[in-house]
Amino acid sequence: MASTAHGNGNKVQDDPEAESLKLLADKNGKKNKATFKGPIADRSCTDIPCCILFVAYIVGMVVVGIIAFKEGDPDRLLLPQDSQGNICGKDSYVDKKYLLFFDISTCATKGGDFTKFVTVPSCPTPQVCVESCPANNELGYNRKAGDMVCKEGVETVTEGNKHQLVVQGKCAPYYLASQPVLYRCIPTLANNLLVNSSFLTNLAGNNMTKAAIEAGLEGLQFLLNAQNFGMSIFEDIKAVWYWLLIGMILVLVLAFIYILITRWITGPLIWCSIIAVFALIIYGMYFCYSKYKFLKDSGTSQDFELKFTLNLDTYTQSKDTWLGIGIFLTVLLVILLLIVLVLCKRIRIAISMIKESSKAVSAIKTSLVFPIIPWLLQLALFAWFLGVSVYLVTNGIPQYKVIDVPTGGDKYNLTNGTDCEPKTFEKEYPNTSASCVMAGYKENVHLFRMQVFHFFGWLWIMNFIIALGQCALAGAFASWYFAFHKPDDIPSLPILKSFWRTIRYHTGSLAFGAAIIAIVQFIRAVLDYIDRKLKESGQDNKIVKFIMCCCKCCFWCLEKCLKFLNKNAYIIIAIKGKNFCGAAKEAFMLLLENVLRVVAVNSVTSFLLFMGKLFVVGIVAVCSFSWFDKLNKDDPDTLQFDVVPTIIMVIFAYAVAILFFDVYDMAIDTIFLCFLEDMKMNDGSAEKPYYMSDSLKEIMDLQNRPAPDGNDDGRK
């Protein structure tokens, strides 16, 4: 239940909530002795059942984590496994770090699903842990008996039996010069694979050509490209790390200066930002179209293919890339220009609201640093979630299947795909070419339930952390708004006190609101999972696609609406100490009664803040690209991809912009809701004066009437 606050202020007959807010002005317009210093302090715990459930769920997640850490083994993901399920580079195989495929060409049967190469031995061929990858191309039985690679448990290899062991599939039929990629021996292909004037042959007797090996490596090609791409990016970052560090510091300074000067020149700065964004977009259009014309006229443009590649030069050297970016910027310019023209008349009140928010942020400077705390909590939670998920995935029981049964069958009547036990297979079925290899992990319904339980908990706690940050900021900014004599009535350490007040009294309410968002997000994740499974099974017909698309769209819209309502509910909780349902109801009714003002203020301020983000990011993008492009031209060997440092700087700038401007967004929403509550509670009389500043009263054409004795309300 919502808490009931008690105070000594004058009771407002037409609004019971006004008593709990302890009006500052008495009938003579003099300062009340019970000076109000922010949201009500006398409150009680709210939504206690939700708090208990939330804490119990966290305990359950800890239990799941303990089970995962105890039973799981992340080395199953990080290190390769042979056909028997042994982990290369661990335990008795500590000296054998690399995985060798007997016949890499058979991997083509997996359809290029590279993920299976990482998680389980996915090729239908024996795989063995080795100390080093082969350095030369040669036939299996041409090797010395002591150097041959064979399955575990094979009898001693001699010069007399090695040919028979190769024919039986117990030893590798051929070796290819390879390099380790994620601890797997991947062939380094030449134009042909001739060795001693003879083609290498696999177990089926087929010639091993470059095309055959490339077909087998199709599933690993993404890993090969990713490794090369990652190494190139690492080398680029290593070459210009000091410039990146300097740039990041300058980005922080730029964002901080932008926030500070907004306090004094809000209107001119916002209009200049809008004009600057348009100028940056126009410059981007000019650059893209110029680049397109240059590549087209010079004939050096590379053909553009509609497929993903990690080679950035394929994109930067294609005229179609620059044409596409230019068209995108043109459309963006037109859309933003139309929005500015439509909202031009409403920008004035939005600028006034941003100016008020600037005053609040300037008065509570710690609000700019506070978002780092929720961000670190989210980062720690994600690290926990990722770690537990990895341990849970590797908590399954290995499953082994029979492969390589001859086409005509064998004397043991073995069948491909049947279960087998690797430790006893060779003894039970001697002299067979079939093998017993690991095919994955058995499905465990309890393990799946733990994964689902842990995933929902991650969503719930993540949304709780977001709610905690919003409610703490809302309480601090509400303290500023309802301080009748600024800055005298602003309480000390408003952020810290608001944070403690939120944790102490409203953990249950925040958990309630976070659970609602988490449920919707969980449903969206389930829809994505079902959609993916339908596509894999080939049942994604047009009707199913349409239904899934509608469901996804509806729940996406529902999530956005609930987030907006929750945010305003948290503001009411911070101000009045109500429970979640009561706060959500009051916030909804308050917004509904002022729907035109809500549309005018929220839409315009959101757009203006977005333009501010674009301004910061645009400045960083243009400066970074110009600088690193010049650096690369002066020394072409410095960077392999000159756009990579620019992309890093843009991502960092956008993250910083979000961090700073989200504080502004919360300040605007809080002050706007306080303004609506102020309008609802008070009428500007000496008994019930407005708390809003003079600039807001001027915009809204309101004023506080002086007391009968002629004294004003003392507002500044």
TrEMBL record:
Designated name of the protein: Choline transporter-like protein
Source lineage: Eukaryota, Metazoa, Cnidaria, Anthozoa, Hexacorallia
Swiss-Prot/TrEMBL keywords: Glycoprotein, Membrane, Transmembrane, Transmembrane helix
InterPro entries from the UniProt entry: Choline_transptr-like
GO cellular component: a single term: plasma membrane
Transmembrane parts of this sequence: 52-69, 240-261, 267-289, 322-343, 458-483, 503-527, 607-627, 647-676
Cell location: Cell membrane; Membrane
Superkingdom, taxonomy of origin: Eukaryota
GO molecular function: transmembrane transporter activity
Pfam families linked: Choline_transpo
Family named by the database record: Belongs to the CTL (choline transporter-like) family.
Membrane topology: Multi-pass membrane protein
Task performed by this protein: Choline transporter.
